[in-house]
């Protein structure tokens, strides 16, 4: 029988996971979207719940079913980046760990057409103007820095193809510093797309912020996550 004295590693912790893609409506029948299966975020939510955490899953548009009926996981559905921002702002202050696996649309249409956009006979093509969405990850990090409250550990994600100037790891390293999060999970995308697969290989980049805890555990003990000696860890396995 399991020893009742032994607590699962994340028991008493609150974990917020964002997963899936956001959708920015153009008119009642059209949207701009981001590709994301949602599988990575769901796998992380289920793993955290199995480790004893109370998990709040903020679920965007996903190819797979959200885990609606698992003990310790509550699911909140969102569509737009603005809705994701509101949800994160509401729940992040109570979270010990924030995992930003969602693929957030960087831009949204400047205007929403209340009526369906129709083709016209004059041969003119419609022009869609875009504006920036808020950077939810970066603002959560900034808020923690300014207020001294918020998740002890904030995890960002990146999907990079690399470019002629920089390889994916260099881009991810720059993104980790720019966003200011504690960990960055890099998915390399390219010829063999990682989207939707059940297995993946990731790089986990750690920031020096992990070694300087901003907050101790509720019982006063030190945080259990420690920075790896090397900044990059590569993991291969099932999501
Ligand atoms: N993210 C976010 N809000 C945004 C865009 C991204 O919170 N408006 C988060 C994602 O959930 C992810 C991380 O930031 O955890 C990195 O997303 P990514 O799209 O790779 O970063 P960007 O800064 O948007 O860079 P890029 O120009 O490469 O898309
Ligand atoms: Ca982006």
Task: Describe the structure in your own words.
With 239 residues, the chain is an alpha/beta fold. The chain contains four helices and twelve strands. It has helices spanning 39-50, 81-91, 136-147, 168-179, and strands at residues 14-19, 23-27, 30-33, 54-59, 73-77, 97-100, 107-109, 130-132, 153-160, 183-188, 199-206, 232-238. It has an eight-stranded mixed beta sheet, sandwiched between helices. A two-stranded antiparallel ribbon has the order 2-3. A hairpin with a 2-residue loop joins strand 2 (23-27) and strand 3 (30-33). It starts with 13 loop residues before the first strand and ends with a strand. 34% of the residues are buried. Cytidine-5'-triphosphate is lined by residues 81, 100, 102, 104, 106, 133, 135-137, 156-158. Cytidine-5'-triphosphate binds at residues 81, 100, 102, 104, 106, 133, 135-137, 156-158. In the C-terminal section; belongs to the PPC synthetase family. It catalyses: (R)-4'-phosphopantothenate + L-cysteine + CTP = N-[(R)-4-phosphopantothenoyl]-L-cysteine + CMP + diphosphate + H(+); N-[(R)-4-phosphopantothenoyl]-L-cysteine + H(+) = (R)-4'-phosphopantetheine + CO2.
